[in-house]
Specification:
By secondary structure, the chain is mostly beta strands. The chain contains 4 helices and 55 strands. Helices cover 7% and strands 36% of the residues. The longest helix is centred in the N-terminal third of the chain and has 23 residues.
Length: 677
């Protein structure tokens, strides 16, 4: 049999943890044998160099570099042995863990003798149970189940917190936070994450900054406190760092990491010009607190918020709010969003700003699209393609420049090259009652040359185009000699009144002069019930405190002590939806047309223009193609002939004059282009 060789470290990692210590010592002994073969001049033989490397670091100025190299290798071996001791596991396998809120299945496993560790790291500290630093420098892991991995100058202070490939980042307060490939960033609440972020802060619960510079997911960051604990009570707070962007009344939370402390409350009493905390007030001392208490601000802003691909300090302060691909913009309202914006704000509930500059959507459910310097302040209001415009009315829409639309349920377009934003700059507006207002000229195609109105036919049946018509009471029939001409059946009207394109003409009650009657009523869309405004966003955790006892082992695997660890938090997000309560605000009064009790919405409306056998479009003014006989020539006045609906030459002035002959007389009629006036 060949001689057994000591395992190299790469082989040892894959072996049983129980054999790790003896194997690494055996490997180190073999290396020591090779290291003893040093040349008289202090150099290392080539065969030894191949095993230990050729590093030439000085220990001090009096030791030759090659000898210093050997000493350095010996020191590294000692550190490897120490790490191996930390990896040794308990003699017996522990049973599967059966706790947890959702009873997520687990399996049985080993437990290391030392429950914190440092590997391949420099000047780092693993303070608490199950805290590690791996491949890191100047880093500090003190949370239960926390770690710094390939990170520099980073702190993982919260339970289940991680800094991965990050620099000068921290996770503190709350539970479960992470900085991944980030720099100069912090996570200060529960389940917060900074991913590929720079100078970003996640302080709302379950908030995140992704590929963002200067992001603020949640309002207020950076405050640090030291509590004074007397007899298990929080009696005072020392402000170690005031932070910024806080407000008076912000709540302060206490996290007991090793005890069953509960009941302490405190709030921000005063702030400075930048929102830094100046004074705090402890409003209740609580009880049963251990000496391991973390303190942080938990003001309820920015929960489930996100800043994604943003720069220049984008902010997401509202519940479930987000800024996306934006610069210097803020999503302050609950469920609000700014997308591809600069210096814009969505402050209304469920408000949004898209592809805009220096705009604000302050009304609930309001929106701004492709605009600059504009505001949507009305509920359900919108601004489109606008510059310095305002949509202030409820459900109002505005476009253009320097224009205000303050009429509810209306659309306005306006323009002004200079001056103040004003309602006086409106150029076109459509109101809720169907009125159309315009400051300019309506221009139509040359094909549409007359003004018409729909009249009911005297006899059922379609009246042909170009037919001269006369009144028979309020109805029309083809005109004959001696009739006063009302007009001509037209297909070229640029304006045609009297149609019913949307609904039955008698739907609304009218007055004696035909005017629509309006009534003032409470807005039926005003909600009678609303979500309880006092519904708490956070509630006391019914499962708090949950305390685990972590066994402490000696080198032989015997339990010598227990370490208490609190694995729950006192306050959690309220999982229950808000109950509906009576709306304290009365419904606003609105003016609506009085509906005819005979109106039946179940009947389908067929417009008059779709019923030519019953209704005829009669051109009253303008240029109309007209049926005439062979006697009519250009420049002649036209009157009805003995043939119903066909015109003939008049020797006296009438309201109809022939301007041109479009089709010569074919034995039945000619077509003349006539002016009606």
């Amino acid at each position: 049999m060949g001689q057994a060789m000591a395992k190299a470290p790469s082989d040892i990692w894959s072996g049983s943890a129980l054999t790790f210590k003896s194997d690494i010592v055996e490997w180190a002994d073999e290396k020591d044998t090779k290291l003893s073969k040093i040349n008289p001049d202090g150099t290392v033989p080539y065969t030894a160099q191949s095993d230990i490397g050729t590093e030439a670091d000085h220990i001090d100025g009096s030791v030759p570099s090659k000898v210093a190299n050997v000493i350095g290798v010996s020191a590294r071996i000692e550190r490897v042995v120490k790490s191996a001791q930390q990896l040794a596991s308990t003699p017996a396998t522990e049973p599967a863990y059966s706790g947890g809120v959702n009873n997520t299945p687990t399996t049985s496993g080993d437990t290391t003798l030392d429950v914190n560790a440092i590997f391949a790291s420099q000047n780092s500290f693993s303070e608490f149970v199950r805290a590690v630093n791996i491949g890191s420098i100047y880093s500090w892991a003190k949370g239960n189940v926390s770690g710094n991995y390939s990170s520099r100058q980073s702190n993982a202070w919260s339970p289940q917190s991680v800094n991965l490939a990050s620099e000068e980042c921290y996770v503190r307060n709350g539970f479960r936070g992470a900085n991944v490939s980030s720099i100069f960033s912090g996570a200060e609440n529960e389940t917060d994450v900074n991913l590929a972020a720079r100078s970003s802060m996640a302080t709302g619960r379950s908030s995140v900054n992704i590929a963002t510079s200067g992001g603020r997911a949640g309002r207020g960051f950076g405050a640090m406190f030291t509590p004074t604990i007397t007899g298990g009570e929080i009696t005072d707070l020392t402000i170690d760092a005031g932070g910024e962007d806080y407000e008076v009344g912000d709540s302060i939370a206490f996290y007991d990491r090793a005890g069953a402390g509960a009941g302490a409350t405190a709030e921000v009493a005063s702030v400075g010009a930048s929102g830094e905390i100046v004074t705090v007030t402890v409003t209740a001392p609580g009880s049963s607190y251990s000496e391991m208490v973390d303190v942080g601000v938990d003001n309820g802003t920015g929960d489930f918020s996100a800043n994604i691909a943003g720069v220049n300090y984008p902010r997401a302060y509202g519940l479930g709010s987000a800024t996306i691909a934006s610069s210097g913009s803020t999503a302050a309202g609950d469920n609000s969003c700014v997308f591809a914006d600069q210096d814009s704000v969505a402050s209304g509930q469920k408000a949004s700003v898209f592809a805009s500059l220096s705009c604000e959507a302050s009304g609930d459910y309001s929106s701004v699209f492709g605009s600059s310097g504009s505001i949507a302040s009305g509920t359900l209001s919108s601004v489109f393609a606008a510059n310095l415009c305002e949509a202030n009315g409820s459900q109002s829409v505005v476009m253009g420049r320097r224009t205000i639309n303050n009429d509810n349920r209306s659309f306005a377009f306006g323009d002004a090259a200079a001056g103040a934003t004003s309602t006086a700059n409106r150029k076109f507006q459509i109101l809720a009652n169907g009125d159309v207002l315009a400051a300019g000229t309506f221009q139509g195609s040359h094909s549409f040359t007359d003004y018409a109105e729909y009249f009911e036919n005297n006899i059922l049946g379609t009246i042909p185009l170009g037919t001269l018509v006369a009144l028979e009471g309020s109805k029309v029939r083809p005109a004959v000699s001696g009739d006063d001409v009302l007009g001509c059946v037209s297909a070229t009207a640029i304006v045609a009144t009297g149609d019913t394109p949307f609904t039955w003409q008698g739907r609304y009650v009218t007055g004696e002069f035909g005017e629509v009657i309006y009534d003032d009523i409470p807005d039926p869309d005003h909600p009678e019930l609303i979500p309880d405004p006092d519904h708490p966003k956070r509630i006391k955790n019914p499962n708090h405190p949950q305390i685990e006892s972590i066994p402490v082992y000696d080198d032989d695997g015997s339990i010598v002590d227990y370490q208490s660890v609190t694995v729950s938090q006192e306050w959690i997000l309220n999982p229950d939806p808000a109950r509906m309560v009576q709306n304290p605000n009365p419904a606003p009064m609105i003016s609506v047309p009085r509906e005819n009790p005979e109106y039946d919405p179940s009947y389908e409306n067929i417009p008059r223009s779709k019923r030519p056998d019953e209704w005829t479009c009669v051109g009253l003014l303008g240029q109309i193609h007209t049926r005439v006989d062979g006697a009519v020539d250009v420049g002649d006045w036209v009157q009805p002939s003995d043939i119903p609906g066909v015109g003939t030459k008049s020797d006296t002035k009438t309201s109809v004059k022939c301007m041109s002959i479009k089709k010569p007389f074919d034995g039945e009629f000619a077509i003349a282009h006539c002016l009606y006036k």
